[in-house]
Design a protein that fits this description.
Blueprint lengths: L10 H11 L2 E4 L2 E4 L3 E10 L7 E7 L5 E7 L1 H5 L3 E8 L2 E7 L9 E10 L7 E12 L8 E4 L1 E5 L9 E8 L13 E6 L6 E4 L2 E2 L2 E5 L2 E5 L9 E8 L2 E9 L6 E2 L8 E2 L16 E2 L3 E7 L4 E2 L14 E2 L3 E5 L2 E10 L8 E6 L7 E10 L2 E2 L4 E9 L2 E3 L3
Parallel strand pairs: 1-10, 2-11, 21-31, 22-31
Antiparallel strand pairs: 1-3, 3-8, 4-7, 4-9, 5-8, 6-7, 9-11, 12-13, 13-17, 14-15, 14-18, 16-17, 18-19, 20-23, 23-28, 24-25, 26-27, 26-29, 27-28, 29-30, 29-31, 31-32
């Protein structure tokens, strides 16, 4: 009797299992909301042992019922990444998350989607689909990413939900929620906000910009020394949103070059050129930072107006750290020529600071510091000029 033994090599099977185990995942939740309302939908990321340093995807949705504004989530901020987005077509947005480092993305919320439901949205479920998902590792090699689609079920009647959520009242520089400070420039994401007014404890806030799902406003200085403030959004005198927010003495945040709240700061070098990896600052040179959320000023701000010819300065002390080292501040006060409540800080780059494309920079006003993830490009001095940042 002839016995035949067939040996099956286990490696292809093991390799297949390893590939599945190391594929990352994107996901959106399923949610329910009435028409004419707003809600926050997080785009979540799970690495599942895969190393992803950059990711791009499209989101497909029904534009007749839904619209979105987006901000960088905590997972992307912690990883030092920034967010870019484009409208490819009606109902299709492209999102790209990358950074100047090779650090892998950590698990958590990649993007906060501030979702507005149209008042005319029909009672049905609207799919939210991921398309064209691509990702790379630090060696620019492709990484498999599985996508778990989400959806939004519209049910109920218009007016039964909130047009504005507390977590969608953001510092305009960092795009982060939190306690508001006197004179802070704010971005409010919500449903049906165009043509509305914003009041803090009954005091109208100066409006800088409006769109169907966004309002940029300035918190009045009248909230100074209060623990909380009642925020109302009104339309033709009728209250359409009402919420209570905590008040802080300061809530500093640095503006960034691309407006995302992370990445290269909106910083000028000593010659008034924009700081960037291709145009870094020199150690020992003075740079100019721009921020908001510095709180009460001296002389005191009155409804954001600058009185007389005096440039107001923050009431609280201001300090800057570059690469963890304290920078000498030569000026901190109003920014001439820019919108009121913008803080300008002139400081000197420490001679001992590290050089590189993305050196962390942090502004503190009083006991509160600005958001993490903002960077400065620095080059070091050489014997006959400079050597470039590396």
């Amino acid at each position: 009797m002839l016995s035949v033994f067939i040996r099956v090599h286990p490696w292809p099977f093991i390799f297949c299992l390893a590939s599945i185990a190391n594929s990352a995942q994107l996901s959106l939740p399923t949610a329910t909301a009435p028409p004419a309302t707003s809600l926050l939908l997080p785009v979540s990321f799970t690495s599942q042992s895969a190393s992803v340093t950059g990711i791009q995807f499209d989101l497909q949705f029904d534009p007749s019922a839904l619209s979105f504004s987006a901000a960088v989530g905590d997972a992307a901020r912690i990883s030092g990444k920034t967010l870019y987005l484009w409208d490819l077509a009606p109902g299709q947005k492209r999102f790209l998350i990358v950074g100047f480092n090779r650090d892998p993305l950590v698990d958590g919320t990649l993007i906060n989607l501030f979702t507005s439901v149209s008042p005319n949205a029909a009672a049905t479920t609207y799919p939210l689909k991921f398309l064209n998902v691509v990702a790379t590792d630090s060696a620019a090699q492709a990484v498999t990413v599985k996508a778990a689609d989400g959806g939004l079920t519209v049910q109920g009647t218009a007016g039964s939900g909130s047009r504005l959520q507390p977590e969608s009242v953001l510092n305009a520089a960092s795009l982060l929620p939190g306690p508001v400070a006197p004179g802070e420039i704010l971005t409010l994401f919500g449903a049906g906000l165009q043509g509305t007014d914003v009041l803090f404890d009954g005091t109208p806030a100066p409006i800088l910009y409006t769109a169907p799902s966004q309002v940029n406003a300035i918190a009045p200085y009248g909230i100074y020394n209060k623990a909380t403030t009642q925020v109302q959004v009104t339309e033709r005198g009728q209250v359409i949103a009402n919420l209570q927010l905590s008040v802080a003495a300061s809530a500093p945040a640095l503006f960034t070059a691309d407006g995302s709240g992370v990445g290269p700061g909106a910083i000028l070098n000593h010659d008034y050129t924009v700081n960037s990896p291709s145009n870094p600052a020199e150690r020992g040179a003075t740079i100019m930072l721009f921020a908001t959320g510095a709180g009460q000023t001296d002389p005191p701000g009155v409804d954001w107006q600058i009185a007389g010819n005096t440039l107001p300065k923050p009431l609280l002390p201001v300090s800057v750290r570059i690469g963890g080292m304290r920078a000498r501040v030569s000026y901190a006060g109003a920014a001439p020529g820019l919108v009121a409540c913008t803080l300008q800080v002139d400081c000197k780059v420490p001679m001992e600071s590290p050089v590189g494309y993305a050196i962390p920079i942090v502004l503190s006003v009083g006991q509160t510091s600005s958001q993490s993830g903002v960077t400065l490009a620095i080059q070091g001095p050489g014997p006959r000029g400079t050597h470039r940042a590396r």
